[in-house]
Specification:
This protein is an alpha/beta fold. The chain folds into 3 domains: 3-110, 3-Layer(aba) Sandwich (Rossmann fold); 117-319, UDP-N-acetylmuramoyl-L-alanine:D-glutamate ligase; 329-483, Alpha-Beta Complex (Protein-Tyrosine Phosphatase, Chain A). The chain is built from 16 helices and 22 strands. It has helices spanning 28-39, 54-60, 91-99, 106-114, 128-141, 198-201, 204-216, 231-242, 291-306, 311-319, 347-361, 375-380, 382-389, 413-419, 436-443, 462-470, and strands at residues 20-23, 44-47, 64-66, 79-82, 102-105, 118-123, 147-154, 159-162, 168-172, 187-190, 223-227, 247-251, 258-266, 269-276, 279-286, 329-334, 337-342, 366-371, 394-397, 427-429, 449-454, 482-483. Strands 8-7-9-6-10-11-12-13-14-15 form a 10-stranded mixed β-sheet, with helices on both faces. The chain has a 7-stranded mixed β-sheet with strand order 20-19-18-21-17-16-22, sandwiched between helices. A 5-stranded parallel β-sheet has the order 3-2-1-4-5, sandwiched between helices. A hairpin with a 2-residue loop joins strand 13 (258-266) and strand 14. Helix 7 (204-216) crosses helix 8.
């Protein structure tokens, strides 16, 4: 996407937007923005085609939700907000321009909400949502009451957005369409840089250059944080330090500014020792598994240090970190089968998530129900995605979710399933959503772990799987018992419904 159509953060405030209407308000990024405006006391409406779980909460806060896309939805509206998933010829976009209304990309509206705040922006190919959530909880634990917008819901907080009274604004910065170049952070965190969104960037070199451009937008008096263990993050740190910028790193690497050691991960969680400038910070504990989770948490510890917040607040917040919805989310158990939901769809994040779920499965089998996200990613990273799916014992594959994309012959799930290194009997493509629960119920045995994984719609299947499993015995499925966590690759994805 051409960045020229985005307006950098300036003096426009959220109150200047008047009555705000969001197209595709149910998407994770858009619903968070709507919640932020509503908790700020602003009038908000939105349009959708699908009953996303977030809509009930928006209505409860006073939002007006239209379950259709109509020109009349814009009556009385001053500002229309859209995401990159909304085409320019969408009827509400066309009507907004015809009426001369202010039309803003989601990131532009979010930048207006940040005006006058000290922004902490979290970017990266993976881990954005988790890290943003951790930083938010650290600030809350320290009594800072930050505003925040996250591409997921923290279970402890119960939402992915809030208008706080403190000076800090924590935001998940989306690189997928270059819109993160709008923000002007005080503290920038870049978790990692890997090849993704190549439909926008073309190649990894251009992607890395754009992350560097984002980092250079950081306040000269502020800080840039990168991961010393990530090759892309290390290259970025070296480039920026050569320019005289204030860069801090974290990781298990010997030269990391915040160095982690003796890291141990199990199904019960992860722990490690941390030290900075030769000073021990003691042991950091998380109640969620995965070494990648340890790295994400380290960036939050470093953020607390740089913002001059008590490190003890970071330790306490992380020790009680409950996870984020759609990231290693335990949906429930039925007939002895555990069901999880996970947002991962990039091969690196998929690998980390499935490896962590293997720790949970123990002696049981791991069954993945995967819906690929975007045709270009599925095509360009087919071998890597297939290898990640091969970690599972069984695979139930749905067709690619790619709004606005035209599938060419030989593209999509049919090609992907052939590449997955599992025996034919242990993988199946189902071309109908309604057939997937029965297929899982046929394959799963007591002691197995099932994970729904991938594009946003698959998050709606967990309850159907539990019902199908419970129906085998005629008993009810046990409800959700809490959240764990895995990874977040892409952050604030929004759809038109």
């Amino acid at each position: 996407m051409n960045t020229a159509q985005f307006t950098p953060a300036g003096t426009l405030t959220a109150e200047d937007l008047g009555r705000i209407h969001l197209i595709g308000v149910g998407g994770v990024g858009m619903s968070g923005l709507a919640r932020l405006f509503l908790t700020r006391g602003l009038p908000v409406s939105g349009s959708e085609l699908r009953q996303w779980p977030s809509l009930a909460g928006l209505r409860a806060l006073g939002g007006t939700i239209h379950m259709s896309h109509e020109a009349s939805n814009l009556d009385g509206v001053d500002t229309v907000v859209y995401s990159s998933a909304i085409p320019q010829d969408h009827l509400e976009m066309v009507e907004a321009r015809r009426r001369g209304l202010r039309v803003l990309h989601r990131s532009e509206a979010l930048a207006a909400a940040m005006t006058g705040r000290r922004t902490v922006a979290v970017a990266g190919t993976h881990g954005k949502t988790t890290t943003t959530s951790m930083v938010t909880m650290v600030l809350q634990q320290a009594g800072a009451d930050p505003s925040f917008v996250i591409g997921g819901e923290i279970s402890e907080v119960g939402s992915g957005a809030h208008h706080g009274t403190g000076e800090h604004f924590v935001v998940e910065a989306d690189e997928s369409d270059r819109s993160f170049l709008i923000y002007r952070p005080y503290l920038s965190i870049i978790t990692n840089i890997e090849a993704d969104h190549l439909n926008t960037y073309g190649d990894l070199a251009n992607l890395e250059a754009t992350f560097a451009e984002f980092a250079r937008l950081t306040d000269p008096d502020g800080f840039i944080v990168t991961c010393a263990d990530d090759p892309g993050g290390r290259r970025l740190a070296e480039t920026l330090r050569a320019e005289g910028r204030r860069v801090w790193t974290y990781g298990e690497s010997a030269d990391a500014d915040l160095r982690l050691s003796e890291m141990v991960s199990s199904a019960k969680g992860v722990r490690y020792l941390a030290e900075i400038d030769g000073r021990s910070l003691g042991e950091i504990r998380l109640p969620v598994p995965g070494r990648h989770m340890g790295l994400n948490s380290a960036s939050a510890v470093l953020a607390a240090y740089l913002l001059e917040l008590p490190v003890a607040a970071a330790e306490a917040a992380l020790a009680s970190f409950p996870g984020v919805r759609r990231r290693f989310e335990r949906k429930g158990v039925a007939d002895g089968v555990l069901v999880y939901d996970e947002y991962a769809y990039h091969p690196t994040s998929m690998t980390l998530a499935l490896q962590t779920l293997r720790e949970v499965a123990g002696e049981g089998r791991l069954i993945a129900v995967f819906q690929p996200y975007r045709l270009y990613r599925t095509r360009d990273l087919q071998a890597e995605i297939a290898a990640a799916l091969g970690i599972a014992d069984e695979l139930v594959l749905l067709e690619v979710f790619g709004p606005g994309e035209l599938r060419q012959p030989g593209e999509g799930a049919a090609a992907l399933i052939e590449a997955v290194p599992l025996p034919a009997a242990q993988k199946v493509f189902v071309d109908s959503w309604d057939d997937a629960p029965a297929e899982v119920a046929r394959r799963a045995r007591p002691g197995d772990v099932v994970v729904t994984m991938g594009a946003p719609p698959i998050s709606l299947m967990g309850d159907q799987l539990l019902d199908a499993l419970a129906a085998r015995t005629g008993g009810p499925a046990a409800g959700t018992t809490g959240l764990g966590e895995a990874v977040d690759p892409d952050g604030a994805a929004s759809t038109a419904g």
